[in-house]
Write a structure and sequence with these properties.
about 15% helix; 2 helices; about 140 residues; about 35% strand; two-stranded antiparallel sheet; 7 strands; alpha+beta; five-stranded antiparallel sheet
């Protein structure tokens, strides 16, 4: 049974072409990788073209007052960030607390993939590039 693991990332630089995050990971399952100093020495660089826009659904909804209101809903779409890593659109440097790498793409810290999922999902929900992201499992 796992005690817990997670990661966090902060936006450090961005321009019209790229977005750069620094990140750090931790696991409570192994004392060597607890990252008690909150070290963030990993880097994730994402090209701006990787950020997919969500689907926008609009519908007229009848309000309790009897009026009709146009309601817009953002529906996140799937982003194939594994293919983006393979084609070089997303580059990374693993943090020093990398305890496990991804099997399908050798050398990729598993926390990088989980953080990318959170970055892209938050972007689609909020409509802006998130400054801080994290996950805990």
């Amino acid at each position: 049974m796992s005690i817990g693991e997670g990661a966090y990332a902060n936006l450090v630089a961005w321009d019209d072409n790229e977005v750069v995050y620094e990140y750090g990971g931790y696991t409570f399952n192994d004392k060597r990788f607890r990252n008690e100093n909150n070290l963030m020495d990993g880097v994730i660089t994402i090209q701006r073209k990787c950020f997919a826009e969500p689907e926008i659904h609009e519908k007229l909804k009848k309000m309790p007052s009897g009026r009709k209101k146009l309601v817009m809903k953002r529906i996140p779409v799937s982003v194939d960030y594994e293919a983006m890593i393979e084609n070089g659109s997303i580059t990374f440097e693993n943090c020093s607390n990398c305890w496990q790498t991804y099997e399908r793409i050798p050398g990729v810290d598993v926390t990088v993939l989980r953080l990318l999922f959170v970055v892209f999902r938050n972007y689609q929900k909020e409509g802006k590039i998130p400054e801080h992201v994290s996950f805990f499992k």
